[in-house]
Amino acid sequence: MDLQQLYSKVRQALDRYNMVNEGDKIAIGISGGKDSLGLLYAMAGLSKFYPKKYRIVAITVDLGYEGFNTTRVEQICRELDVEYYVVNTNINEMIAKEGCSLCARLRKGALHDKARELGCNKIAYAHNMDDVIETMMLSLIYEGRFSTFYPVTYYENIGMELIRPYVLVTNAQAKGFVKKYNLSVINNPCPFEKISERDYVRKLIEDINSHTPGVRKRLMTAICDGTLKEWSVDNQ
To answer: Virtual CA dihedral for 214, 171, 18, 122, nearest 10 degrees?
Structure first.
């Protein structure tokens, strides 16, 4: 996927789900992985010609793992003329026993606090289409309900809106973009990355797709055309 195709996918999500309003200041959470870097490129580029003017800042939450280096992200942000901030934490020391769920809460809290400090009214996460589908499958398997996160969510407790402009970009397309432009991706230092329920569901979907090609697209169609009104175009 090239940059113009990326712009098209992200703009489609912005338009379809009314993610951006005139004058928005949007904080983009940057992990340094392929999705967050792709979203950074897309939102930075679109800000120059999108009909509703908005500003972005990039924020990385450093969990405290040794060897985590943000030099390449800093360089990319300079090239894109985007303000960049790193929030240093010791979250790694706090999650030794509780793992992913606690880490996610603490990481989001640190990101939200910094975004508020910078005067942002929205936060953009880089969840892609495969993340949407995997979350739905996790909900079905472990909770017995048809559910996933939404493209747009307003959080009263922090007074900000959360948007996910990458939800129409597949995992394969995200990989293709960073490969095409030789973007360095920061390796995830988290020791829990490959032992989570999400990793199990990801492999399960891959196995189903090997027997029934195209299943990801059909699962996404079920989400958009199903009972989740937040995903329905007709309700936008």
So the answer is: 150
User: Averaged over 177-191, what is the pLDDT?
Assistant: 78
Using CA atoms, how far apart are residues 224 and 216, in angstroms rounded to an integer? 12
Scan for tokens 């942002």, then name that residue: 120
Annotate 142-168 with three-state secondary structure.
HHCCCCCCCCEEEECCCCEEEECCCCC
User: Do 122 and 24 meet the contact criterion of CB atoms below 8 Å apart?
Assistant: yes
Lowest mean pLDDT among 21-30, 38-47, 93-102, 110-119: 93-102
Measure the CA–CA gap between 6 and 38, rounded to whole angstroms. 8
Residues in the chain, how many?
236
- Whether pLDDT at 189 is above 70: no
Q: Residue 218 pLDDT more than 80?
A: yes
DSSP reduced 3-state for 87: strand
Structural Rg of the chain based on CA atoms: 17
